Amino acid sequence: MRMSETTIDDPSSKNHSRPVRLKRHKVSRESVIGLGMNYLHELGADHICNVCIYNGGSCCGGCEHLSNGAGCKLRNTSCTAWLCGFLKYVLYETGHLRDWNAFWAQVPGLDHRMDYTPEQFFIRVSLEAHTLKELSASLAEDLKELSKAHVGELGFILTVREQLDRYIDLYLFCDNDIPKQKRVKKQIDQLSVPFHRFREALSLHRRSFEKSE
Question: Whole-prediction pTM value?
Answer without folding.
Answer: 0.87
